[in-house]
Amino acid sequence: MNKVLRLWKRQTFAKQLTLVFMGVFLLQLFIVEGIGSNYLKEVMKEKIEESYQIALKQTALSTESSLQMYKNGIDEMFRDPDFILTVEALDDIEQGDEWKIKSDLEQIMKEFMAYRSEVRSVCVRTKNGSTYTYDRQKVELLNPETAQLHEDYFKSCIFEDNQGLKGKWVPTAYYDTNGTRKNYVYSYGKQIMEWYTTRQIGVGIISIDEEVLHNICQDAVINKGSQINSVMMTDQAGTIISHPNKSYIGKNLETYQEDFPLEDYLVIRETITDTGWRLVSVLSKDYIYHRLYEVQNLILIISLLLGVVVLFIVFYVSKKMSKYITDIVDTMNKVQRGKLSAKVGIPQGEKNEISQIAIHFNIMMNTVNDQVRVIKESGEKQREAEIRALEAQINPHFIYNTLDSINWLAIENDEKEISNMLSKFGQILRYQIQKSNKVVLIEEELVYLEQYLFLQKVRFMDSFEYNIECQESVKKYQIHKMIFQPFVENAVIHGIGDIEYGGLIQITIREYDQNHLSFIIDDNGQGMTEEQIEGVFVTRDNRTSSIGVSNVLARLDLYYGDDYKIHVKSGERGGTIIETIIPKWCKSKEMGDGNENTGC
Fold first, then answer.
1. What does the alpha-carbon distance between residue 222 and residue 52 come to, in Å, rounded to a whole number?
2. What is the pLDDT of residue 470?
3. What is d(CA 547, CA 549) in angstroms, rounded to the nearest whole number?
4. What are phi and psi of 243, to 5 degrees?
5. Pairing relation of β-strands 229-234 and 240-242?
6. Do 178 and 64 meet the contact criterion of CB atoms below 8 Å apart?
7. Which residues, in sequence order, are CB contacts of 451 under 8 Å at separation 6+?
8. Max alpha carbon distance in the chain (Å)?
9. Which of the four pLDDT bands, split at 50, 70 and 90, describes residue 208?
10. Torsions phi, psi of 255, nearest 5?
């Protein structure tokens, strides 16, 4: 308790007031929702049970009416004199009369079933054991097959008592199978009497398709979803005799309740007077109460919305005096995380002490941003000067080597070749001077590399060949001018410079992945040792690397920072492969100093 009290004292007044309001609001919401929900649920349950019991009673009356209708028709047929004489004749059939007797009996049964399509079969057995059956789906005049169900009824003698004299209904049972469909029937049986002598001459059974009971039950269904509501019929022992799902027929109601627990469903029963059978309706409680739940949810939502509105008002009133301090603290946190442009909002018309603090804080941040901007501009100018200085170190080195080649050619060759070399060299100089420290298209850089390699090939007396392959899709991307020329020069001078013939330089430019390009320079020269690779590309020891390579590595650092990679591989038998992976540059964006390395 003391810990809770100490924790409570540490909270601001705004939080304390908010917590008190929330506690009172939730308490009243719990009381209203809890008591109201249970009361409404009980009232709704009683009303639904009452109305649904009436509907189920009406269905039971319909069932009784249907059964009585069949019973009256069957009794009328069994009292018909022609029918009685024909049944008696089954025991005294003489040769030649069998066809006529059975034909007459079939005709009487057909007339009975003519307007009763739901009647499946009629079967009679005399006291002497002669049997004749008319099955709607298995018509055979002379020797019709008697269903096993009827044979069982005759053997059990269930119609031989006084109830059999009046007529007895037998619950649904399996009859036969047509294809994959199992047929179920309920039956009515009674003794056939010779009324003038009050002598029993046989027993008759009429079997009716279970679908009749099923259709009657469907009249009491309020929702067709089997998981919401199902109406079935059971016998006096609780065995299911009619159900939409035929697999339940013959099972006890307790087995059915394993799939539909009573705690989740409302069960309503109504007895059919003549037979003792029962109509059983199983109705989902969720379906019953879903309207109630909707009303409760609506009330809950409205209550929550009202609570939120009141809570907002309380919170606003309690936080008004401390809002500016919170804004200033939040803004300081943003500045601490590096967002120097953050400012404190100052509503118009406010002249209190806290607003003065906010005003002076914004003035201070404007001063800081101005100083940061000056420092940044100075740094950018310094970096550009460094880049130009690095590029300036490359140009004299290249010019010296080129002039040296031209000098040797002037001695050994005629003027046409000297003119050709001077032309190539002039194009190279113009390319360097016109776009100093700028980005160019890759296809422009390829023209430069082609001219450069041509001059070097002439210089080294055609001792090597070169091949440049560029993926067509990357030619319109941009790179910094002469970014890879020092690597090519290194391959010529230090790689194949000492080879008299058979040298080869392969340059490949392709897409590395969605955001990067790959530049591969592969030569078959004398190669590099692990120590040389370590000194040039890792430790960058100026004593082991050329000026051009050192400069280009420094330029790559300035242009791309950590967003580029260099892979160097040199075999024991010579040859070096240098792969440089850099970000893609936008095709249409003009970039001056290479700071913006946004991919296309």
1. 9
2. 93
3. 6
4. -160, 145
5. antiparallel
6. no
7. 424, 427, 428
8. 153
9. very high
10. -65, -40
Total length of the chain: 600
* Contact yes or no for 247/238 (Cβ under 8 A): no
CA distances from 105 to 13, 94, 98, 206, 349 (A): 100, 16, 11, 14, 110
User: Quick one: tokens of 305?
Assistant: 């919305």
Closest CA to 86 of 187, 192, 166: 192
Main-chain phi, psi angles of 12, to 5 degrees: -75, 165
Q: What is the pTM of this model?
A: 0.46
- The partner residues of 241 in beta bridges, in order of sequence, read none
Q: State the alpha helices, DSSP H only, in 262-284.
A: none
List the structure tokens of 146: 């008697």
Report the sign of the C-alpha dihedral through residues 362, 364, 367, 369, in that order: negative
First to last CA, the chain: 63
Q: What angle do CA 478, 483, 487 make, to 5 degrees?
A: 135
Among 484, 491, 489, 488, smallest CA distance to 528 is for 491
Amino acid present at 369: N
Which residues face 252 on adjacent strands? 239
271-283 pLDDT per residue, tens: 888 888 998 888 8
Alpha helices by DSSP H, 518-583: 530-533, 547-560
Structure tokens belonging to residue 124: 């009679």
Question: CA-CA distance, 443 to 557, in Å (whole number)?
Answer: 23
Which two structure tokens, joined as six digits, stand for 438? 């700028």
- Residue 210 has which token pair? 């279970």
Contact 281, 218 (CB under 8 A): no
- Alpha carbon separation from 392 to 378, 404, 483, 551 (Å, rounded): 21, 19, 13, 10
* Residue in 355, 349, 356 with CA at minimum distance from that of residue 324: 355
Strands of 464-470's sheet, edge to edge? 464-470, 503-511, 516-523, 574-583, 565-571
How far apart (Å, rounded) are the C-alpha atoms in residues 271 and 273? Answer: 6
Q: What Cα–Cα distance (Å) separates residue 349 from each residue in 327, 328, 346, 359, 377?
A: 17, 18, 9, 13, 38
Structure tokens at 19: 């917590």
List, in order, residues 6 or more apart from 11 with CB less than 8 Å away. Answer: 19
Dihedral sign for Cα atoms in the order 547, 550, 554, 555: positive
Q: Which of 286, 252, 251, 280 is nearest to 267 (CA)?
A: 280
Cα dihedral sign for 521, 525, 530, 533?
negative
Give the tens place of pLDDT for each residue, 237-254. Answer: 889 988 888 888 888 887
Above 80 in pLDDT, residue 380?
Answer: no
Q: What is the mean pLDDT of residues 155-174?
A: 85
Per the DSSP assignment, residues forming a β-bridge with 399 are none
Burial zone of 54 (CB within 10 Å; 0-12 exposed, 13-18 middle, 19+ buried): exposed
The first and second tokens of residue 363, run together, are: 């003035």
8 A C-beta contact, residue 324 and residue 354: yes
Q: How far apart are CA 4 and CA 9, in angstroms?
A: 9
